[in-house]
Amino acid sequence: MRGLSSLLSTALATASFAQLCLAQTAGTYTDPGTGIKFDTWTVATSSSKGGMTIGLSLPGDALTTDATEFIGLLTCSTPSAAGQGWCGISMAGPMTNSLLLMAWPSGDKVLTAFRWATGYDAPGAYQGNTKLTQISSTINSTHYSMLFRCENCLAWTEGSTVHKTTSSSGVLVLGWTQSTTSPLNGQCAADLSVAVQHDNGEGIFGAQLNAFGVNAQYGTWAALATKTVTGDCGGSTTTTTTSIPTSTATVVPQPVPKTTFDYIVVGGGAGGIPLADKLSEAGKSVLLIEKGPPSSGRWEGTMKPGGLMART
């Protein structure tokens, strides 16, 4: 997700309203099981493998009074394998300084987590007063889908800052993103850690609201959202924060190897690691030397190319 420019803001205000991302197509949908009416926006398969659909149902006065919550429809694809991947929505468009909602399949459940990012790195857990309760969810071989109520998701706080979208303008700016790889520790929403960022597309679009998705029956429909789904946490009270963990690992000195090598690479940074990997892929024996503290693991630092592991 990327920040919006002032030009984009101006474009949104025009009466003709041009869609911000041509991959999104607008429509309407009535859920057959509940009768809930949604305005919907679908991401084309040319922008995200398998596609993605976002739907919103808003309180009856949302076009005159800014709504603070909505009933959502979220359908996301699993193009790499059944039950794999995650998807997300930004409530204000960009990734940074916006309320982020992640969803992913875990067993026979769809789990969710609110996240927050101040920069373009792994977002931490959102600590505000949002609340998500599910109406229903389904998972099949190609997609997972969820109906849910999202309270305080269109007007939220982070620290002393109050953020508010304006449904009364008739347009919400939203962001979407998808990944083909499941999050780490994904069986428990509180322990979530993102292994791979959105490798299946991302974008920002203008969600133009109309009377179909704004309904006086909203209160009746919202009452159907009674399920709080946290996953299998095994009694764990672990929470994810934005702070860098303090490492307690002990560095054990290793003797200098007596083996001879074709190449010695000093420094396991952005240049050293790829160089050592390429040399080892070419069949050369490589010694990679790195000085530094133990990894905090914040960036999933235990991951490394298979070829590098086999030959260094």
Structural features, described:
Helix content is 9%, strand content 33%. By secondary structure, the protein is mainly β. The two termini are 37 Å apart. Mean pLDDT is 80; it is low at 1-23, 236-251 and 304-312. It folds into 2 domains: 6-222, Immunoglobulin-like (Sandwich), CATH 2.60.40; 263-311, no CATH class. A hairpin with a 7-residue loop joins strand 7 and strand 8 (124-125). It has helices spanning 6-13, 218-222, 272-281, 306-311; strands at residues 24-30, 37-43, 52-59, 70-77, 86-90, 100-106, 109-116, 124-125, 131-139, 143-151, 155-158, 161-164, 171-179, 202-208, 214-215, 263-266, 286-289. It has 4 helices and 17 strands. The strands form 4 sheets. Strands 1, 2, 3, 4, 9, 10 and 15 form a 7-stranded mixed beta sheet that branches. A 6-stranded antiparallel beta sheet has the order 8-7-6-5-13-14, with no helix packed on it.
Low-confidence stretches: 1-23, 236-251, 304-312
Topology pattern, helix = H, strand = E: HEEEEEEEEEEEEEEEHEHEH
Overall geometric form: elongated
Number of spatially distinct domains = 2
CATH topology of the largest domain: Immunoglobulin-like
Radius of gyration: 23 Å
Helix-and-strand structural type = mainly beta
Number of strands: 17
CATH class of the largest domain: Mainly Beta
Q: Mind telling me which CATH architecture of the largest domain this is?
A: Sandwich
Give the terminus-to-terminus CA distance.
37 Å
Helix content: under 10%
Oligomer: single chain
**Percent in strands:** 25-35%
According to CATH, the homologous superfamily of the largest domain is Cellobiose dehydrogenase, cytochrome domain
- Major β-sheet annotation: 7 strands, mixed
Give the number of helices. 4
User: Mean of residue pLDDT?
Assistant: 80
